[in-house]
Amino acid sequence: NVALALTSSAYHKVTLTGNIAFTCTTEAEGQSGSIFITQDGTGSRTASWSSDFKWPGGTAPTLTTTASATDRIDYVVLSASNIHCVATLDVK
Questions:
Q1: In whole angstroms, what is the distance from residue 61 CA to residue 80 CA?
Q2: Which residues neighbour 59 within 8 Å (Cβ) at sequence distance 6 or greater?
Q3: Quick one: which of 85, 92, 90 has its CA closest to 32?
Q4: Spatial CA neighbour of 44 closest among 11, 61, 78, 67
Q5: Strands across the sheet with 2-5, in order?
Q6: How many whole angstroms separate alpha carbon 92 and alpha carbon 74?
Q7: Average pLDDT, integer, range 54-67
Q8: C-alpha dihedral sign at 58, 75, 49, 90
Q9: N or C: which end of the chain has fewer CB within 10 A?
Q10: Residues 17-28: pLDDT tens digits?
Q11: Is 58 helix (H, G, I), strand (E, B) or coil?
Q12: Residue 6's pLDDT is what?
């Protein structure tokens, strides 16, 4: 699992070396930033998200599974436990 402390930084980088679950330990209303997620050299890693993360249409995106691929998740904290997110997949 990856527990993101959103109040510690606006930008977070994570390399997937296995399937993971994202959670949030701290967030502040009005805060925004990005999470850069890169597949390791093997790829095919997946991510799940706690219910604090809200997505368009109510469904988290399927991350790019190609080895070394990078996806970017942008977020805005609307309120505690209400983090609005959008994904930009396979950034090259």
A1: 22
A2: none
A3: 85
A4: 67
A5: 2-5, 20-26, 47-49
A6: 16
A7: 98
A8: positive
A9: C
A10: 999 999 999 999
A11: helix
A12: 95
